[in-house]
Amino acid sequence: MEKYKKPYAEKDVQEVYDGPGGLLWEAVMSEQIHSGGPEATDALAQALGLKEGMKVLDLCSALGAPARHIVKKYGVTVKGVDMTKTMIEKAIERTKKAGLDNKIEYHMGNVMDLPYEDNSFDIVWGQEAWCYVTDKNKLIQEAYRVLNPGGKIGFTDWIITGDISREELDPLYDTMSFPYMEDFKGYQELLKNNGFKILKAEDQTEAFAQCFDEYYVTVHEKLKTMILENFGKDLFDFASNLVTIWQKAAIEHKVGRGFFIAQK
Ligand SMILES: C[S@@+](CC[C@H](N)C(=O)[O-])C[C@H]1O[C@@H](n2cnc3c(N)ncnc32)[C@H](O)[C@@H]1O
Question: How many domains is the chain built from?
Fold first, then answer.
């Protein structure tokens, strides 16, 4: 079946992460802007077998918090690519403050067109961001190109995990400015068709739904006053609707989180 797509593009995503959306996501999810926090980062790092000295490329590095985490804990070096100016500036500033600017570099650019030579990284890394990418085949192709032979790609992403209609997807995509999401099989096909050998593919929708249970409480209780005072009622209503519809779709196992490891 052909994928349902919306005309969201780079400028829509930049508008989110350059504006109050980026601040709100950090307030709700923390500096590591993905579900599951540092534990999810460790799970990915361990599944990839990160080791001292490995060269990692983080595609959609946002505030750089996962990059700093894996540099400190596993002794790797990281290059991070992101296309949003505010995210890149904050990532550089926080990395310098943490004294890790000799281990992490950031580049502003589009992950569908990487400014790196063929065969230059041991690991390509991504956490819950590729759902914004308008051509995920191009992204996986680029990941394959820049990986060393034997190198690994490891990522988590928001994906379709059950039967879901266009009418149900529409408001989910609208709240997130997603052009489309891959599904669990779709990502595996993209990996295989681009030459990767799949080592692990896991549907983590239950854990994803539990995270949304937390976000629901965070928005409606813990952060309600802060959001209303700092961002206003419209953004509170937007966030309230977002967590409500995503929580419902995740509980119904229609959307969730995919976890993938593959090798070149
Ligand atoms: C949810 S955040 C990423 C979170 C980050 N991986 C983490 O775990 O902390 C999404 C990021 O993806 C970036 N992004 C989305 N599409 C992109 C693209 N095509 N090229 C580069 N960056 C992109 C956005 O600018 C934003 O900073």
Answer: 1
